[in-house]
Write a structure and sequence with these properties.
Chain lengths: 331, 331
C-alpha cells in the first residue's frame, strides 16, 4: 500500500480538469447565459443581431463598473464611490469633447483616464492613511465626487466625439460580433490580464485572502490596497467614458452603477471576503442581469419585477455561496 | 530614560488620554460643542437668522433623518449596516398615501408597518440564519422592496389619494411656531431606543454581537435571534421615518427617501457609532443628525449649490471618522 499509493497520486491530472475546477463558477455562469440566450430566442423569435448589439452597448458601462468593483473586492475592500466616479468622469469627458476636433477629443479621453487614476488614488490614500473602514471612506467620497460632478455640469449635456461613438456602435466583420463586446474584451485584456499575472496582481489576491499572512510574506499591504483603488479608478473612468460614448451625453447624477456593480461582482463569483474570483465572472453576470431584464419585457411582465428578480437573485446567490463555504468548513 | 522624561511623557499622555477618553466614551459632549459652533457660525454668516422659529425648522427637518439614523445606529452596533431603510421608508409612506383614501388611515398605517416588518423579517433571516453579509442582504432587499412598490404604484395609479393630512400636520407644522409636532413621535421613539440600548438586556446583546460575535455565542446568546429582531426593528423605524418624511415633504413617492440613506449612515458615523460594531449609541446619532441639518441649512442660506453641500458632507464624514479612528485605536 505504502508503495503504490504515491504512484497513484503522482499521476498528473489532466490540465482541463484543473481549469474546470478553478473556473467552475464562471463556466456555470456562461452555461446559464447560453441557456438564457436560447430562452430569449424562444420567447422572442425576432431577437437577433440588433438585440445582441443593443445588449453589448447597454452592458458596457456596467461591465466596466463591475470590473472596477471586482479589483477592489478581490483585494479585500469595497468601493461604494464607483457610480459617482463614473458620473464625474463622464461629465468631464462630455464637456471637454463637445464640438471639438478629433485630436482634442483624444487628448480629452487620455486626460479623463488620468483623472480616473487620480480619483482612485485619493480614495486609496484616504483608506490607507486614515485607517477608517473602506465602506465609510468610499461612501463619503461618493458624495464628494458626485458633488464635484454637479459643479462641472449642472444638467445632463455635453457631447461625444464621433470616433468614440463609432468605436462602440455597430459590429466588426461578422455582424454577430458587436464592437462594444470587442472593446470590452480589449480593455479587460489590456488592463487586467497583465496585471493579474504580475506580482501586483498576486499581491491583490494575497491581501484579499489574508491580510496578516500577506504582510508576513512581504506584501506591502498599504501600497497594494492603494493601487487596487487606483486600478478601480481607471476602470471607473473607462466606464464613464463609455457612458458618454453610448448615450452621447454626460450625466452628473450617479446612476445605479455602484450597487449593481456589487451585485454583479457577487454573482460573478468574487467572494466579498476577498481573495477569490476574477473579472470574467462579473462581466458575464452583468450580461445575465441585463438579459433577464430584456426577457421580462419580452414576456410582457412588469419591468419592475425585473428589479425584484435582481434583488432576489443577488441574495439567493450569496446565501448559496455562504452555505457552501460553511459546509466546506464543517467538513 | 530619566525620571524627568518619564514625568513629562506621562503628563502629556494623561492629557491626551483624557481628551481621547472624552471623545471615545462621551462623544456627545464634543459633538454638542460642534453643534453650538455651527449655530454661532450660522448667526454670524446671516445675522438674525437664528431664532426659535429657525430652531423649530431645523428640528422638523432633522427628526425623520434622526429616526432613520437611529435604525442605522442599531444595525451598525452589531457590525452591520442597513441600506434598505430608504426603500422601506419610501414604500411605507407611499403605501399609506395610496390606502388612506380607501380603508382609512389606521388600516393604512397598519398595512404599511406590517409590510415593513415583513421586509425586515426576511432581511433578518438572511443576515442572521443564512449569514449573508448585511450590506448585500439589505441591498438586495431594497431592490425587492423598490420593485414591488413600483408594481403597487402601477396597480394604484387610479386611486392617487395623496399624503394624509394627519401626516402633513405632524410632519411639517410647528406648535406655537417653535416646536414641531413630529417631536410627539420622535421623543417616545428616541426615549425607547435610548432606554433599550442602555438599560435592557436586548440592548446589551446588540453591543455584544457587534463587539465579538464568537464571544457572544459562547456566552449563550443566539446571535441569529438578536439579528432577526434587529432588522425587524430597523424596518419599523424606517417606516416611521417614512411617514414623517412624506408628511414633511408632502410627497408620496417610491424613491422619496433614497437621498436620505447615505446621510443616515453619516449621522451615525458622526455620532460616534463604529461601523465595525460594538461601539456607539443613539445620543450621538441625534446630535449627528442635527449637525448635518444645520450644515445643510447653513449652506442653503449661503446660496451655495447642492453640489457644495454634498462635497462638504463627504469631507465631514471622512474627517470625523478618521478622528474617531485615531482616538479609539490608540486609546
Amino acid at each position: 500500500m505504502a508503495v503504490t499509493a504515491p504512484a497513484v497520486e503522482e499521476r498528473p491530472e489532466p490540465a482541463w480538469r484543473g481549469i474546470l475546477q478553478r473556473n467552475g463558477w464562471t463556466l456555470g455562469l456562461l452555461g446559464f447565459l447560453v441557456v438564457l440566450l436560447v430562452f430569449t430566442k424562444l420567447i422572442q423569435p425576432s431577437y437577433g443581431v440588433s438585440g445582441v448589439q443593443g445588449l453589448a452597448i447597454a452592458i458596457l458601462p456596467l461591465a466596466l463598473a463591475a470590473a472596477a468593483q471586482a479589483v477592489v473586492v478581490i483585494s479585500g475592500g469595497i468601493d461604494l464611490s464607483i457610480g459617482s466616479m463614473m458620473a464625474l468622469t463622464s461629465v468631464i469627458a462630455a464637456t471637454r469633447m463637445e464640438d471639438q476636433p478629433p485630436e482634442v477629443t483624444v487628448i480629452a479621453v487620455i486626460l479623463v483616464l488620468a483623472i480616473g487614476l487620480v480619483l482612485g488614488a485619493v480614495n486609496g490614500a484616504l483608506v490607507v492613511i486614515t485607517k477608517v473602514p473602506d465602506i465609510v471612506v468610499t461612501l463619503a467620497m461618493s458624495f464628494v465626487w458626485a458633488g464635484v460632478a454637479l459643479l462641472v455640469l449642472r444638467t445632463p449635456g455635453g457631447g461625444s466625439a464621433d470616433w468614440l461613438r463609432d468605436l462602440v456602435l455597430g459590429s466588426v466583420g461578422n455582424e454577430w460580433i458587436p464592437r462594444a463586446a470587442l472593446v470590452l474584451a480589449a480593455i479587460v485584456a489590456v488592463v487586467w490580464i497583465p496585471l493579474q499575472r504580475s506580482r501586483l496582481g498576486l499581491s491583490f489576491y494575497a491581501l484579499g485572502s489574508n491580510e496578516l499572512a500577506a504582510f508576513r510574506s512581504g506584501v506591502s499591504v498599504g501600497w497594494t490596497k492603494f493601487l487596487a483603488y487606483v486600478v478601480a479608478g481607471l476602470f471607473s473612468a473607462l466606464a464613464g467614458i463609455m457612458l458618454v460614448a453610448s448615450s452621447g451625453i454626460g450625466t452628473p447624477v450617479p446612476g445605479p452603477y455602484t450597487l449593481l456593480s456589487v451585485a454583479a461582482v457577487v454573482l460573478g463569483g468574487v467572494s466579498l471576503a476577498g481573495g477569490r474570483g476574477g473579472l470574467a465572472g462579473p462581466v458575464i453576470a452583468v450580461v445575465i442581469l441585463s438579459l433577464l431584464r430584456t426577457d421580462m419585457t419580452f414576456l410582457r411582465l412588469n419591468t419592475n419585477l425585473a428589479t425584484v428578480a435582481q434583488g432576489v437573485i443577488l441574495v439567493v446567490v450569496v446565501m448559496i455561496g455562504t452555505f457552501l463555504t460553511l459546509r466546506r468548513k464543517a467538513e | 530614560m530619566t525620571a524627568a522624561d518619564g514625568t513629562v511623557e506621562r503628563n502629556r499622555w494623561l492629557t491626551s488620554a483624557g481628551w481621547r477618553a472624552l471623545f471615545r466614551d462621551r462623544p456627545v459632549i464634543p459633538l454638542i460643542v460642534l453643534l453650538g459652533i455651527l449655530v454661532v457660525v450660522s448667526e454670524l454668516v446671516r445675522p438674525g437668522v437664528v431664532s426659535p422659529g429657525w430652531a423649530g425648522v431645523i428640528m422638523r427637518t432633522a427628526v425623520p433623518l434622526a429616526i432613520l439614523a437611529g435604525a442605522q445606529t442599531l444595525a451598525m452596533l452589531t457590525g452591520g449596516i442597513d441600506l434598505s431603510v430608504g426603500a422601506v421608508g419610501s414604500m411605507s409612506g407611499f403605501v399609506v398615501a395610496t390606502l388612506v383614501g380607501g380603508p382609512g388611515l389606521g388600516v393604512a398605517i397598519l398595512v404599511a408597518l406590517t409590510v415593513a416588518a415583513l421586509a425586515g423579517l426576511v432581511t433578518g433571516i438572511g443576515v442572521g440564519v443564512f449569514k449573508v453579509h448585511p450590506l448585500i442582504m439589505t441591498l438586495g432587499m431594497s431592490l425587492v422592496v423598490l420593485g414591488l412598490a413600483n408594481v403597487w404604484q402601477i396597480q394604484m395609479v387610479q386611486t392617487g389619494a395623496g399624503v394624509p393630512a394627519e401626516f402633513r400636520t405632524i410632519g411639517s407644522t410647528l406648535a406655537f411656531g417653535i416646536l414641531p409636532y413630529s417631536l410627539l413621535v420622535f421623543v417616545p421613539v428616541a426615549a425607547l431606543i435610548l432606554f433599550a440600548l442602555r438599560r435592557t438586556g436586548y440592548g446589551r446583546l446588540l453591543y455584544a454581537v457587534g463587539d465579538n460575535p464568537i464571544a457572544a455565542r459562547l456566552s449563550g446568546t443566539r446571535p441569529w435571534q438578536v439579528l432577526i429582531a434587529l432588522y425587524v426593528i430597523t424596518a419599523l423605524l424606517a417606516a416611521i421615518a417614512g411617514f414623517l418624511y412624506s408628511g414633511l415633504t408632502n410627497t408620496a413617492s417610491v424613491t422619496l427617501m433614497d437621498t436620505q440613506v447615505l446621510p443616515s449612515v453619516a449621522a451615525a458615523v458622526i455620532g460616534g457609532t463604529s461601523i465595525l460594531g460594538g461601539r456607539g449609541g443613539f445620543g450621538g446619532t441625534i446630535v449627528g443628525a442635527l449637525i448635518l441639518t444645520v450644515v445643510s441649512s447653513l449652506l442653503v442660506s449661503l446660496g451655495s449649490p447642492e453640489a457644495v453641500r454634498q462635497i462638504l458632507f463627504g469631507a465631514i464624514i471622512v474627517v470625523v471618522a478618521a478622528a474617531y479612528t485615531r482616538v479609539t485605536s490608540e486609546g
